User: Fold these one by one.
Assistant:
Number 1:
Amino acid sequence: MKPAPFRYARPKNLADAVEILASADHDVKILAGGQSLVPMLNLRLVRPAVLIDLNGVPGLDHITPGADGGLSIGALTRHAALADSAPVIERAPLVAEAARHIGHPAIRHRGTLGGSLAHADPAAELPAALVALGAELVLHGPRGARTIQAPEFFRGLMTTALPPDEILIEIRVPPQGPGWGFAEVVRRAGDFALAGVVALVGRPPGSSERCDSARLVGFGVGDRPVRFAAAEEILTGQGGDPGAAVARAASAAAEACDPPDDVHASAEYRRHLAAVLTEEAVRQALTRLDGARPA
Amino acid sequence: MIAPAERLSIRLTVNGRVIEREIAARRSLADFLREDLGLTGTHVGCEHGVCGACTVLVDGESARSCLLFAVQLDGATVTTIEGLTPPEGLSPIQQAFCAAHAMQCGFCTPGMIVATTELLRTNPAPSPGEIREALGGNLCMCTGYVNIVRAVAQAAAALRGGAGESS
């Protein structure tokens, strides 16, 4: 057997899950889809005394459209469900697109939204998409439920603001505008990205001028989802040629990166990709704002 | 509250048979199938979710059996390559893999056939690109991908009632 011995519990409701979590003295891992955690268990990179399987808790895999045009999504929602869900495709197409880029069919059937966020791999697609969208995460623990903004949730390499006695149960996604783009470079379809960029831009209706809002987030280019604030300001700033602004924003995005330098790609190459992919994601977003489909 | 336990009893359906066992929590579904049930058609390659050799169907959907613990499968329905093989002879997908010589050492073949079963159930006429994408999570270490893609296209044609494509 590959993993070190552990004790396992499959609580039937959230209150029990929280109670077991508290009683396990912090030497515990939450099992959702297991597509990142179980490899780490099998490689003995983690050796928790207790594994709490959330899959027996009902009501954690809902996709609920909100009155504001947004969505609330249960943390146990599988990537395959996100990618195929009509409300997600309609209201948060960036999330559906990000989910489509994760792994392979067998992985998307099991892997979950909450698991991806709590695992916080800096090269993962969904954390970047939810930071760009300004999503709100609902954490549940012994003191009840509370919320945290997605950008505050990610604290570093595979490190989040989730305390050991709380469970991520829901993700609230605000309404998404029509100007969105998603671009990544992978060695093979389904791999973690060498680098990727998501873009959300807005422009007054009927205008072909400057954007009045821009949100650009890179993944695989730092220790967490990286917001390209200077690039956003260039896109929304006044003066100059709007076309040239995209190229300048791409350069600014590359400067904001502190990418890893490893066997998969050099830091310099990832920085180069950040610029190219920023331009690509922004152009997709502008094309969609014009009512067309990106090539 | 349910106390966490190191050994648990499970009851699940494997290839149509109801199975009840008490097992260690850390027993993977792959090891459970192979070691406890003797279903050695499910192959164990990387044991950390990369190679796809251990792919089975859980409640009808493909999953990597090395990334599931058998205790998670209490109440579930599991189908392995043995369950996809008719009592006599071979299924149309298996026949196509033989006809197209879509195997060299054969180690990846059970996982490939499980993934193909799922693909053709949802997409009866996949393009070569769609076949490659659907089987992207299954590695053939002999690199015999060209014939595997041909076999899937031939199996799709056979299942659609065509005479088979020679591509």
Note: The longest helix of chain A spans residues 267-289.
Number 2:
Amino acid sequence: MNNPEDNRPPGERDWSVVVEDGIAKSNQPVSSAVADPSATTRRHEPHEPAREHLPERLYEPRKAVHNKRIDGPFRRFKWLVMLVTLGIYYVTPWIRWDRGPYAPDQAVLVDLANRRFYMFSIEIWPHEFYFVAGLLIMAGIGLFLVTSAVGRAWCGYACPQTVWTDLFQHVDRFVDGDRNARIRLDAAPWTWSKVARRAFKWSIYLFIGFWTGGAWIMYFADAPTLVQDFWRGEAASVAYITVAVLTLTTVTLGGFMREQVCIYMCPWPRIQTAMMDEKSLLVTYKDWRGEPRGSVKKAAKNPDQFGDCIDCTQCVQVCPTGIDIREGPQIGCITCGLCIDACDRVMDDIGRPRGLIDYATLEDCEREATGGAVKSPWRTLLRPRTIAYSMIWAGIGGALLFALGTRSHTELTVAPDRNPPFMLMSDGSVRNSYTLKIRNMESRPRAMEIAVEGLPGALMWTDTINRDEASATQRVTVPADLVRAVRAYVAVPVGTAPQQFEFRVTSLDEQRETDVVETRFDAPEDE
Amino acid sequence: MANKRIDQPTGTPTVGHEWDGIEELDTPLPRWWLWTFYLTIAFAVGYVIAYPAWPMIDRATEGVLGWSSRGELAEEMSAADQARATVREQLARIPIERLPEDGALMQQAVAGGAAAFRVNCVQCHGSGAAGSQELGYPNLNDDDWLWGGDLKAIEYTLAHGIRQAGDDETRSSVMPPFAGAFDTDQLNALTDHVLAFSGKAESNPVGAQIYADNCAACHGIRGEGDRAQGAPTLNDAIWLRGSSREAIKQQILNPRMGMMPKWEGRLDPVTLKMLAAYVHSLGGGEDFVEVAEDPEVAVDEQP
């Protein structure tokens, strides 16, 4: 193991080789994959440094993205989506919906305190949470559908992270100017004017963050009341905490972390890559057309040597996540299409055909590269996978609507007393006690009839109806939108055997909704 | 052994120890972690000042906020008490005869009584209030009452107990033992007669005569009992200590008589009212027979 380049005086020991037990220990790393078993005993000496230098550090500080202003069809679409999504977010809690005197008049309300969820004419109780689960499943499959058809369109246009990041980037542009001005300001030393600018910008961030959190809490209480209470300092502390937390997350995620959330934190890009295939539309740079890159001048000098890309890097400058689309599809690309706007504009200016960067499927790209015909967008969108997703999505939606339309607003549960199971009365009759829970899901009080069926001679009275008025049917009023517990006592004549019977509850209105529960009547078996 | 060399590939010093050739890099904590750590220290300082922290000889340092877990519990308890105070006040004011007229208050009373029942009564009467035939604890769910089953009677029984020594107002009755008074035939005849009240045997003149001479004074000619004396009804289906011939004979010869402690003085009057309401609500409660007797029962609206 002597290094021939070592010019050591002869006879002096080579310290790079450590001899122990007659085995020379090498300082060369030995891969466990190829080393013979005894090699582990010949690993490098501990006091010696390991020899290989890692090529680079694993940590890389963020490079701030200062995206340039651009206009074009995709940018306008992005504006539209931002307008619509933010509009829905801020306006929804203020829509009123008349539900009568016994229910709130807010169209969309998650009433956590009373455990009710209102959405226009639909009211969901906690036990019907499967409707919400169904909606979430539909949202999931909807994302599958969108992803398999048009790639990461969700990421590019509708995702809250994207919408708010976009908003904050517009704030940057409004306060500090466009890309170059922002880069200059970033690099500039901290003068008072920079401090003032930053303070102004960050207070706008805080303002946006505050209104984001402020709108969120409106979904959980009557909005007009809450606004008044909030500013008077009388709202529940959870409202203030929620607003504070959401302000913080909005400013942190949208104002400072931005594209890092998409690239490093969000699981969705990873899942999406598994759902896209060569038939999905995505933002693609047509490298066969663009490469090799060369300026207009060079191309004029050497015709046929350069592709269409003139390496103006407009596509990079407008990108909200700061990637270079010409490197190919990548996790940082949220497919917002702004690079298409930028490139098309440049191609128009220099008189080359548009679509060097384009929404295209990888399959079409290959076909186009070899000179084949490109499928129409409809053919691209309508394929078995997207059709299957659509049908599953519509199927679940239809099933949910059906369940919603046919659900009963009257329900009954019965819990028989088990201690004691039955009670002998002084006239020899046997009594059982039951706790009935009658659910009235209408937002008005309803009269209900409770009937004992299939128990001959049975008489029933309750905690509010005296034994003198005992009969096989009783009438109770269930308050609006509540479950009423009724203690029911059922007595049968001497000699009735233990048996199953039924409680039936019927709403005494034009709906005549009914629910039947089978339960057991216990009686002494002997005699 | 301390040999804090710099590890070249990472540029990080080692901690200076080596175990079987394994060394550890002295990698500094991430900055955010370090700052979080400093924050916790700052928080701890503030916490020590604000809250009880250092253990001293008999108590901990008090902290400037004056908070203690005991104090918090006391506050919560008093808040809970205050929440109940209105109901208790109303209950204290309303005479028990008028309680059923106020449905909401009655419900509150039943709920409070259920809680008190679980603490004070289940030991004998059982958690379902079904009592025990073997031990002679009455079933409170049925409609058979030795001393009366309206709210007022139940409240009285609760307050003064049954056969409670040392209480002049306690409910008290004695069934005399008849051991040695009858021969076997007489005893059988009497038992038959008693069972005949509820249709479980054939009556006979001998038994009827013995019954009329010895029992009818308290239990009534037809075995209808007498609540004023606490004499059990013999013509119904419910038998406190069993309906078999043996059980009845035993009860004639060597009667066992139960005892219920008085609760006045141990439970406050409001709790007694609530207990009475709960027992009344178990399904066998009776209406007042004598409410009309005193229509001017003072319902004092002013506390």
Note: Confidence is low (pLDDT under 50) at residues 1-6, 30-35 of chain A.
